Amino acid sequence: MARAIVGPLSRFFGKDEEDVVRLRAGVEAWRVDLVSSVAEQGGGQSAWDEASEVAFESDLGESGWIGLRLFAFYAERSDLEWPDTVPALLELDAGWRQAADDKFSKSLYGQLLAGEMWLPGEFPVTIRAPRPDGGAAEIGSLKVLADQLLWLNQRTFQADQDEVADWLAMPAEAGGMFLQAARRGYAALSSAVAVAQEAAVPLVMR
Questions:
Q1: Which ranges constitute the DSSP H helices of 14-127?
Q2: Cα separation, 119 vs 200, whole angstroms
Q3: 104-152, pLDDT tens digit by residue?
Q4: Which of 143, 159, 178, 206 is nearest to 68 (CA)?
Q5: What SS3 state is found at 159?
Q6: Is 69 helix (H, G, I), strand (E, B) or coil?
Q7: Which residues are within 8 A (CB) of 122 and not within 5 positions of it... i.e. 6 or more apart?
Q8: Which of 186, 165, 170, 167 is nearest to 67 (CA)?
Q9: Is 66 helix (H, G, I), strand (E, B) or coil?
Q10: 5 — alpha (psi -120 to 50), left (phi > 0) or beta?
């Protein structure tokens, strides 16, 4: 099951409250190093309060995250036919594999397709970098992710806020219906992005 988790990274990686407090200084040092890398690629500053108590989770279901990203990928490929159901792995889709090798550099939805963690601030491309815990991740911009989700809705679903909110109740089981999963994933991720932007804290997929 995929979840979009909003809040300070020390809370994401910490096991308990004592661990969270201990991790704050390390996360801040990591942020400073990352900002230097972002600046080299033409991005702006990225800052947030690691002492923030914001904690929000949004459930994309078993297949909502895969369904949403595959939907965004197919939305730009009129030469491909949409699948009826969600594949177990994105890598099973040959077109996806080819685009992923190029880091989705030609896509309008690159932050959505490639990203795993999004930070406050605005930078145009995702960056492959170690997370605070040492694991590698594709890191993007909350602002650009929000823009790309908006564009995706405008070009495809054309749904209003009430309709999108209703999609949170849609099923997204493993191997389920493709469009239902994509809609559930869109609604769940959009709700998490809205909270993260309002609070100016990171969003991480788990």
A1: 17-40, 64-75, 94-101, 110-114
A2: 8
A3: 878 999 999 999 999 998 888 888 899 999 999 999 999 999 999 999 9
A4: 178
A5: coil
A6: helix
A7: 43, 44, 141, 143, 144
A8: 186
A9: helix
A10: beta
**Phi, psi at 56, each rounded to 5°:** -145, 140
- The one-letter code for the residue type at 194 is A
Burial of residue 85 (CB within 10 Å: 0-12, 13-18, 19+) is: middle
Q: pLDDT tens digit string along 163-183?
A: 999 999 999 999 999 999 999
Round to whole Å and give the CA distance between 144 and 166.
24
Using DSSP, how many helices (H) and how many strands (E) does the chain show? 8, 6
Q: Which two tokens stand for residue 162?
A: 């009430």
Tokens representing 23 are: 């991790």
What the block records as the tokens of 93 is 């889709």
Q: How far apart are CA 194 and CA 178, in angstroms?
A: 24
